Amino acid sequence: MSEAIFQPTDIVLAKVKGFSAWPAMIIPNELIPDNILKTKPVSVHKGKSGSDKKANEDIDADTESEARDREQSEEEDIEDFGESEDNPEKFIIYTPVLKFRKNDTLKSTYCVKFFCDDSYIWVKPTDMKILTSEDCRKWLSGKQRKNKKLIPAYEMAMRGKNGIDIWEFVEYGSYGKPDEEEYVEEEEEENEPEKKAIRPTRSSSRQRQKRVSETEKSEGGNSNKRKRVTRSTRQQAIDASEEEEEEEEEKYKRLLERGRKGPKLRKL
């Protein structure tokens, strides 16, 4: 790894202890999240005596120095930002409205964000080097054994700093801003409970089928009862008519018998 004055948006190969060297981008100070700024390590310079008191004094001095440098840098940015078009050597013109101040001196640490991992870390200049698109092509086409997770990171780095939207990379990560279709899906998912409340569940549909079958059975039973009632009433009517016919036949027979015997005469 070489030691150089790295600039914002530079694509580098950063090495962290315990991990493989990973493609990353140096994040401009203007875009570093506040929670990441708070984790910036403070360099410690021990005195010749090596006493704790001297070390604490050095830490306090470094902290005050970094605070002054940050305030001074912010003031210079405000003063020079409007003159960036006249002094392009002081700024990296990323877009007409997005400009990053260049580093004039070597820094003790740089904030980088790893590709296709989206984690931040502060790296020393001795632990990283510039990664070009040609370096990425050679690595991807090489026959060496590759970590599968590193392949998309090298593919992204191969696009170069001009092929990556730095603002979207910081804001949304390596895969960029979600599509509008995903927002529509989220809205549909939000409305899904309402639809589910209207739709019958499996149990309710089964119960409904059961109710329908029971209703059909009950209707069938009622129809059978109706049929039975109809049959009984008809039978009763037939029986009644047969009885009437039998009574009339008996009456007719009696009349015939009376006619054969003749009228009874009263004795005088």
What do you see in this structure?
The chain is α+β, with helices and mostly antiparallel strands. The protein has two domains: about 10-190, Roll (SH3 type barrels), CATH 2.30.30; about 215-250. It has seven helices and seven strands. The strands form two sheets. It has a five-stranded antiparallel sheet. It is rod-shaped. Residues about 45-60 and about 260-268 have low confidence and may be disordered.
Topology (SSEs and partners):
Layout: E1 11-14, E2 22-26, H1 34-37, H2 52-81, E3 91-93, E4 99-101, E5 110-114, E6 120-123, E7 128-130, H3 133-141, H4 150-157, H5 166-172, H6 180-198, H7 202-261
Antiparallel strand pairs: 1-2, 1-7, 2-5, 3-4, 5-6
Helix pairs in contact: 3-4
Biased composition (Basic and acidic residues): 250-260
Protein name: ISWI one complex protein 4
Biased composition (Acidic residues): 72-84, 180-192, 240-249
Spell out the key features of this protein:
single chain, alpha+beta, SH3 type barrels, five-stranded antiparallel β-sheet, two-stranded antiparallel ribbon, 7 strands, disordered C terminus
